[in-house]
Amino acid sequence: MSGVSLQNVTKSYGSLTVIPDLSLDIAEGEFVVFVGPSGCGKSTTLRMIAGLEKVSGGQIFIGGRDVTWERPKSRDIAMVFQSYALYPHMNVADNMSFALRLAGTPKSEINERVRRAADMLELTDYLHRKPRDLSGGQRQRVAMGRSIVRDAYCFLFDEPLSNLDAKLRASMRTELALLHKQLERTMVYVTHDQIEAMTMADRIVIMKDGVIQQVGTPKDVYNTPVNTFVATFIGSPSMTLLPGELSEQSGSMRIHGSGFELPIPDRLKSRAGASPTKAVTMGMRPEHFAAEARTEAFAPVNLEVKVAEYIGSSQFLAANLGGQDVTAAVEVGPEADLLGDGQYYFDTSRLYLFDRETGQAL
Amino acid sequence: MNDTFQRQLYHYSALIFLALIALAPIWVMVATSFKDDVLVQDGTPLWFFFHPTLENYEYILTRGKFDRYLTNSIIVGVASTIITLLLGGFCAYALARLDFKGRALMANSTLLVRMVPPAVLAVPAFAFVTLTGVDSDLAVLTFFYTALNLPFAIWLLFGFYKQIPVELEEAAIVDGASPLQVFFKVLFPLMTSGYAVAAIFTFRIAWNEFILALLLTGRTTRTLPVGAAGFITDTGIEWGRIMAMGTLIVIPPLLFTFFAARQIIAGMTAGAVKG
Fold first, then answer.
1. What does the alpha-carbon distance between residue B13 and residue B7 come to, in Å, rounded to a whole number?
2. pLDDT of residue A121
3. Taking residues A289-316, what's their average pLDDT?
4. pLDDT band at B45 (very low <50, low <70, confident <90, very high)
5. CA distance A177 to chain B (A)
6. pLDDT band (50, 70, 90) for residue B128
């Protein structure tokens, strides 16, 4: 199998196990994003793929080749570091061509490849500048350029955008997605920013404590999170979790808790019915609140609004529902006044249920 | 007079004052080296207006063993500097990058060794030579100067290595560089300032060292400072010749420092990381 494949990879430092057992297949040409809170082992995983960290157990395949014990240079990978790691004593062109020069690539080919990468990244005018004379965004692009000229089988990115300001980050995101389209290379990307993951990934790998929680397309992980961790990690603002009890009255399943009683949507009925426990956690995404009922699935909830934040066509509400904190994002149009206490509606067809004990989705 | 002018006036006055204090002894040395015996013994401090003579220089360059002392000094100075930088560089790199037991303690305690004045080592050094029976004085002296300078060199280079982000090495490794290529193509170019500073200090200390050299060298293996002290005789101190020798001794480290200091570029790693 080609692409990148991790098989039962483990990593420990002494008695501390960082990655207990990780298996994952990444298809050739796929853009996979590892996401998770800091210390979840995503960077360690990436560094093991790169060969900068040795695995404690398991195997790593790149392009169908077992590279578990290969040096980084023979893995056919290129890597972009969070800190860019540009060689400060070399100008942009030399930075980009360093790997090729080491590999003994003919000069004409080096020049051609650097020129092409510089074109792609709009760095042509800066080829003779030193990194210290570049802006943050330009440095970031040089770091990308350095990996592009390699024409490696697999590209690895270790939080490459986290040092940029918000605006630049957004535009670099677009550039990266474009780059992936042009190069059609396997890309593995690590970030703690779920927005980056959602916007760029073909598939997202959500990690926590060295364990993969869920692998899936952005749509998958947003719509069907496997547990409360994924549910709250993906989505912004993040999902509100409230404790509730399942009950059945005359054939209709409902969930009730402090300050609310809502019907269980059809898609969850059978699983809710089969649930061994009635004590569950209900998940409500802020964006599924509305000011008025748009369909039959919208059920009224009374929110006591503590703070309303105007962000244009929506408002974020930090509210209170039966004594518990709830976040709602209500679309009311840009002209609306700041929202206050009152009745709002929640789209119960988008409701999530989790086992309160295990946190697993029902 | 505005404020900035006044402040600059103070600054420059202070600087000039300090410079005078620093330079006065050197001027006395240089001036004395151009005086004949009579003028020196005269007692009236003549700073500028006297009839200069090259008699002292002529004497030490033709009648003394200046060339031999100079060769010895250069051998010992250069050899101990090269060995110190080589070993010190390795140690500093290991302390800055590798994780091993006792690393912090070692990194912090290297300088303590430097606190021991060389004179304290004179007796043990002499005992060492007598007991081991090593008969190459210059090799022994090189050995001791290296030992003496290593802690400082390690400490200094350690600081420089720590400034280099480890990602640079990793990037080079991913780019396909071998360990030696990582060192020579990425690390060393960024470390030239550090090595230059370390070289200036180690060479200067080795060049000027007197007590160990006096103790451990013989007639043919004397270094320049010991040679200069040879003009202190039973029949009197030949100030003119000592000063002429001193003046000549100053020149090589001055040239060396001038050359090495050109390698010192502040902010060498600027632009390596972040924005």
1. 10
2. 85
3. 91
4. low
5. 22
6. confident
Kindly report the average pLDDT of chain B as a whole number.
Answer: 86
d(CA B60, CA B46): 23
Instruction: Please provide the DSSP assignment of A292-333 as one string.
Output: S--STTEEEEEEEEEEEEE-SSEEEEEEEETTEEEEEEEE--
Q: What are the angstrom distances between the C-alpha of B11 and each of A48, A332, A343, B3, B191?
A: 57, 66, 73, 12, 33
* Among candidates A72, A79, A139 on the partner chain, residue whose Cβ is nearest the Cβ of B275: A139
What's the number of CA atoms in the CB half-sphere (13 Å) around residue A337?
2
Averaged over A164-182, what is the pLDDT? 86
- Provide the whole-model pTM: 0.81
List of domains in chain B: 65-261 (1.10.3720.10)
Judge whether A156 and A49 are in contact, CB under 8 Å.
yes
Residue B127 has pLDDT above 70, yes or no: yes
From A130's Cα to the closest Cα of chain B, the distance in A is 8
Q: CA dihedral in degrees (B184, B185, B188, B190; nearest 10)?
A: 180
* pLDDT tens for each residue of B241-272: 899 999 999 999 889 888 888 877 655 555 55
Nearest to B206 by CA among B261, B137, B141, B252: B141
Q: Chain A residues contacting B, CB < 8 Å?
A: 50-52, 71-73, 77-79, 81-89, 98-99, 102-103, 130-137, 139-140, 146, 150, 163-164
| Residue ranges of domains in chain A, CATH in brackets | 4-233 (3.40.50.300), 240-355 (2.40.50.140)
- B181 contact residues in A (CB cutoff 8 A): 102
Q: Which two tokens stand for residue A276?
A: 């061994």
Q: What is the ipTM metric for this complex?
A: 0.83
Concatenate the DSSP letters of all residues of A145-210 into one string: HHHHTTT-SEEEEESTTTTS-HHHHHHHHHHHHHHHHHH--EEEEEES-HHHHHHH-SEEEEEETT
Residue A57 CA to its chain's centroid (Å)? 26
